[in-house]
Amino acid sequence: MIDFFIAHFSYGILFIWSILEGEIGLTLAGYMVKVGKFDLPQVLLLTIGGALIGDTAVFLTGRLFKTKTEILLKNYEEKMQRIESWFLHYGSWIVIFERFVYGTHIPALLMLGVSGFSFWKFLLLDIIGVVLWAVTFTTLGYYFGHTVIDLLTFVQRHLTIALLVILFFYIIYLLQKEEEV
């Protein structure tokens, strides 16, 4: 699968991929930097630009279409409660790090837009988050290439299985901790 991506991957695809999602594409781009097919500064500029365009569009969708967005967000009540509790606990830091929590990115941005959160504050914090995200996944791709891409692909395809495995090990941890007491 990775050979197919390498044969057909381009800067344009990376840019569009960064607007829509990005982790796998960015990791693949990091790997392609390592093998000499991509240029690191170009990868970072394209992915940061694409991610900022995508994030700003989602934020402004929440802001400009508040009523329709609130109706849409009601369908994700449990996820929204979790994100809201994160905002209460972590404040503005969540804007920087929500990108790293799978499945919360778009609802969090929509919620920010609906909430009346300052656009300029959002933009500043989002720039920091996007830069951290771009550097993190490019670095993972550069140093761990195939392994990380395969892992990200697996997790995105089999998220339920991955969460169950994590839950299984967490339960084992809790049971062992309980026996020690």
TrEMBL record:
Entry keyword Transmembrane: yes
Domain VTT span(s) in chain numbering: 24-142
InterPro entries tied to this protein: DedA_domain, VTT_dom
Membrane-spanning residues: 12-31, 43-65, 86-102, 122-145, 157-175
UniProt KW keywords: Membrane, Transmembrane, Transmembrane helix
GO CC, any one term: plasma membrane
Keyword Glycoprotein set for record: no
Pfam families, sorted: VTT_dom
Stated name of the protein: Membrane protein
